[in-house]
Structures are given as C-alpha cells and as structure tokens.
Amino acid sequence: MTEPVKTQDISETDIYLFHEGTLYRSYRTFGAHVTEEDGRRGVRFTVWAPGARRVSLATDWNGWNGDNDVLYRIPDSGIWTRFFPGVAEGTFYKYDITGPDGGRFLKADPYAFCAEVRPATASVVKSLDGYPWRDGAWRRKKRALYHKALNIYELHFGTWRQKADGSFYTYREMADLLIPYVKTMGYTHIEIMPLTEHPYDLSWGYQATGYYAPTSRYGEPKDLMEFVDRCHEADLGVLLDWVPGHFTKDAHGLRRFDGTPLFEYADPLKAEKPGWGTLSFDFGKPEVRSFLISNALYWMDVYHFDGLRVDAVTSMLRLDFEKPSGQYVQNEHGGIENLEAVAFLRQLNETVFHYYPHALMMAEESSAWPLVTAPVHEGGLGFNYKWNMGWMNDTLKYMETPFAERPNRHHLLTFPICYAYSENFALPLSHDEVVHGKKSLLDKMPGTYEEKFAGLRLLLGYQMTSPGKKLLFMGGEFGQFIEWRDQGELDWFLLDYDSHRGIQAYTAALNRLYLEEPALWELDHTYDGYRWINADDANQSVICYLRKGKKMKDTLLVIVNFQPVARENYRIGVPRAGVYEEIFNSEHPAYRGIDSTGGKAKRVPSEKIPWHQQNDSIEIPLPGLSLSIWKKSAIQAAPQRRKKK
Predict the structure, then answer these.
(1) Collapsed DSSP state (helix, strand, coil) of residue 42
(2) Is 165 within 8 Å of 218 (Cβ atoms)?
(3) What sign for the dihedral angle of Cα 129, 135, 137, 143?
(4) Rounded distance between C-alpha atoms, residue 67 and residue 339, angstroms
C-alpha cells in the first residue's frame, strides 16, 4: 500500500459536538467516505475507538492484516482517521484493532453504509451520492396525520413473497410487486421490519450489527432508495422499524468495540438483556447519543423514510425489564427508571421533529408509562404515536374466548375506551401476535370454519371503527391460516379458495371505507370523536357506538354482534331522527358472509321510541358475528307519532 496523503483534520466543531452528544449528522464525519483530497481520489476512514492502542485498516488487498495501514489518532479525541488514495467504491474492509490489553481483533465499521451479504461480515465502501430522487411533490405536501387517515401495512421484507427457488426479491423487484398490491388494498403506509444489517435471518433484523447499512440481502443502498422513491410516487408512506434499545453480541459488531465496553454499559447489570441475549446501548454516553440520533435522521435524510417505529421502548425505560430481583441496578433515586434512556428518548424526538416536523415517531411501549406522546416541554417522552398494546391484548383475549364465556369478559370490550385518549394511539395487530405458537389471527377465532372467517372479519372491522390509527401485519388481510413462518413466504395459494378471497375483498373494502369516512379518523385523539350508545348488553355480547367527525353529517353508528346468533329485531337508540342507511356489513355475501337479506341495501326510518337514553331508535336485523355501520341518510322520514316504550 502506498503512503497516505497528508491527513485532513476533522473539524474541531464536529469533534466537540460528537463528544457533547449533539453531532446529529455524525454519519457525514465517521465511516468510509469516497472523496478527493489534495487532488487525489480515495477514501477517508474515520472511527471512534478511544480505548484502542492502535487502529488499522484491514482489507483483502493486505490479507486482512493492517500492520502497514495504520490510522492516525486525533489527540485527546478517541477518534482515528486516515485518507487512503486509490481506494475505490466496493472495497471490503474492517478495522484491525489492538485493544488496551494488547489483544487484536477485527471489527466491522459502525458507520458503514453497506455490508457483505451474510454470512460474510466485512463492511463495504459505498457512496450514497447521486441518486436522482423524484419524490419532491410527496415531501412538500407532508403534513401531520393527527386528523388524517393512517392505515399501515406491516411486513417482513424477506417473507412477504419469495422467488420460486426460495431466494429473496430485491428492493427494486419488490417495488414492482408490493406497491401495486398495497395500493389496491387501500393502505396509506407500509411499515418494514428492521432493515439494518443483521447476521441472523431469524432475528428478523432486531439484533443488528450495521446500523447505517441497509441489509444487503435485498440489494444495494440505492436500490432501497429506488423502492422508497417509488412508494412516494404512488402516494404511499414508508416507515422503518428501528431498534435503538439493544444490539447483538456477534464478534464483528459493536460489542467491546475497542476492547472495552464502548457502545454498551460497562456495568453488566445495565448492559445485559438476558431474555434476548443482547446488550443495551449506554444512553449516558454523549457519543452513543450522537451515533443513535444521527442514525434516526440518516434514514430520513438519505433514504427518505417518513418515520420510525421505535422498538422495545419499555426495555429501554426500565432497568428491571425482564430481570429478576438482584439482577438489575436502581437509579440514583432508588427507582427502576433508566433516567439516561428517558433523557435520550426526549433528545431523540426533539431532534427528529426539529428537522422533520411531520415525521412519524411511533413508540412500541408496552407498560403504562405516562405521557409517551406528550411533548417534552410538558414532561413527556415526545413521541407523536404509541402502539396501544392494552387495546391489542384485551381485544385478542376477548376474540379468543369461546362464545359461551364472552358475556363474562365483556369488560375487555368496554374498558379500553377508558384510556383511549390518554395518548395518541395506533391500534396494532402486529407480527408479534401471530408467531411463536400464538396462532394466526384467523386461527385464534373460536368456532367452526365459517365462524372463524366471520370472527376475523368482525375483528378487522372492530379495529377499523375503534379510535386510533391502524396497523395490520401481512397475511391478516387474506386470512393466513398458519401463523407467520419466518423463513418461507406467505401462503398466497390460499387465494385459490373462496373464503380467503372473500377476506381479502373484505379488507380492501373496509380500507376504502376508512379512507372515505372522516368519522373514522378525523377526531381520533379527542373524546368528541366517540360516544357509546350501548356498552351494557353483555348477555348478548353486543356493543353499539358512534364515531364522529368534525361535521355532524359524517357521524357513523357502529353495531357489533360478537355471538354467532342472529338478532332479528335489535333495537338501537339513535342521536337524531331520520332515515338510517346501512353502508357496510361484515357479513355481506360479497365477502362470503351470511347476511340473511342477501346484501340488499337497508334503509330504516327512526321511530319515536326512547331507547339507550336517546329520544329515537331504529330496529334492525343483526347477523351473527357481524359488524354493521349505519349513517343518517339525507332522505327525510315521514313524521310519526311518539310511541310509548
């Protein structure tokens, strides 16, 4: 290797901000950057390794021995850097590090923009410049979604579809397949399970080694840019599942990066995640905060993602997360809150919203931690959405309950509304609920084969008409019967069968209805958007409620029958006199349902019969295991005399 050109100093300001925890585009300084210095083309490598005695560049040209290619230490900074002329894009490399005890080992670059395809573990020099983005119109029109429709299709990139030989589709190939499907189904956004580089397929990306490297399983970085770009051209938002809570222990990764606990806590009681076999980031280190917050912005800056679903927030917030007594430390006040993680999350959200005011920052937070979606200046964590795990758990527990036992569990339907407005919620039916023996959504439903399908239609309709934004994991939309198998593709052959085609048609129709009816999303985060009509019919397992928009004419009446028993003449109180028209029924024959009217349009005039604390009421048929939605028609009802109850 030729001698390097005289090293170009890194900005003193960048060094200061990095050590302060506020170098929010640290990826522009660290890593491998194709550049020109002193008139020569090459690559500058920069890495943070304060505990190392020596850091060298190991590549295939030097036999992965960096003795002759040592980086220079910037005094009093812990940062090593060097410009290597003649090095080109596509070069494989690692850092050859000598630790403080003299031990020598190879590490992948924490800031690498690309990595080899697993099981190989080297970093790859890659320029991210020059992609011709076409999504300017999408980015200019982005607005906050609090009062807009938000319906997310969650997917695992490698198992949504696979090629005939079991290999993966690339990012570009998936754009051809996925985008038309998701648009036809009526979703507004997709959410992709983690794409950060990871060594083990079955970790689903939740145990990462390359935080700045989109996994090479599916192609090159610019292929991912093309995928996101085409989603935006199709008016489809893209969210990334992001994992700042922990990282894998693989030898080439972040663990003891410079021979010391650098990215992780030094105290193993704080560092270890025993349930997952991973390590927690040290949120108290400013340099780690620079690394992580920069990474969040990186996915929005470079790849134009519209936001992040932040994984396992509870594991970050609680020092005792999944740890028995004696296996965790308390904070300085004697509590179990990780005060450093709290401060990190607040700094993260304040920073993201400073640069991207309309980004989605969605917390998967499974405890009752308060103010997750409250602004930081009001004492909150600063997210703008939280997954409503309570709704998900209560609802699925109820839906799995045998029909005869449902009256005794009616509270699982009525209690979630008590806290529905305590946060800005999204209602998830996610991947975690259809794997590891939990069964698919369809198979969770009790009853006969036909009743399972009716139950799934009811569940999806109940989710869509409950307050909060929506998320459904792939396969649920057509009734995947076997739980998600995280190695093979979904069972698309099921669409050869009427019952599964019916579920798919139903989901698409339900999604279109959601987009068309402002009452289902306009007032998602205020009590004005929801009102009980009848929450107390536990014996028949029926509930009735209103969803309201900003205009009275948009009000919807929702009736849900959770028993496989038809109610031929069910009376319901209505808020205004007039003709009520059924606009949706989960048991419509088009969805392979058993609506006894054959799906004919229903219009019912109200009667002056007080019911459910309302002055007027209607009487309608309710098919078994059905959800129906009614709307007051512009048609005027003939005047009627008031009847006694």
Answers:
(1) strand
(2) no
(3) negative
(4) 42
pLDDT score recorded for residue 97 = 98
* Angle, alpha carbons 263-266-267 (nearest 5°): 135
User: Which helix H or strand E contains 498, and what residues bound it?
Assistant: helix 498-516
Q: What is the pLDDT of residues 102-161, one digit of tens each?
A: 999 999 999 999 999 999 999 999 999 999 999 999 999 888 899 999 999 999 999 999
Q: What is the mean pLDDT of the chain?
A: 95
Q: Which residues are catalytic?
A: 311, 364
| Helix or strand holding residue 580 (H, E) | strand 579-585
Instruction: Give the pLDDT of residue 144.
Output: 86
Helices 286-301 & 339-355, crossing angle to 10 degrees? Answer: 30
pLDDT at residue 637, rounded to an integer: 59
pLDDT tens for each residue of 405-436: 999 999 999 999 999 999 999 999 999 999 99
Entry field: residues in the chain = 645
Q: What are phi and psi of 598, to 5 degrees?
A: 75, 20
Residue type (1 letter), 59 = T
| Residues sharing a CB contact under 8 Å with residue 85, sequence separation 6 or more, in sequence order | 2, 4, 5, 37, 40, 41, 42
Note whether 582 and 602 are within 8 A (CB): yes
Facing residues of 199 across strands?
none
Helix (H, G, I), strand (E, B) or coil at 128: coil
Predicted pLDDT of residue 202: 87
Please tell me the distance from the alpha carbon of residue 278 to that of residue 270, in angstroms, as a whole number. Answer: 11
Q: Count other Cβ atoms within 10 Å, centred on residue 435.
A: 17
Torsion of CA 272, 277, 283, 284, to 10 degrees: 20
The DSSP line for 427-464 is EEE-GGGSSTTS--HHHHS-SSHHHHHHHHHHHHHHHH
Amino acid at 153: Y
Gap between the Cα atoms of 152 and 164, Å rounded: 28
The predicted pLDDT at position 238 comes to 98
SS3 30: coil
Minimal CA–CA distance to 107: which of 91, 93, 90?
93
Tokens of 35: 């550049």
Q: What angle is formed at CA 437 by the lines to CA 436 and CA 439, rounded to 5 degrees?
A: 115
Enumerate residue ranges in the chain where pLDDT < 70: 1-9, 596-601, 636-645
Whether 392 and 403 have beta carbons less than 8 Å apart is answered as no
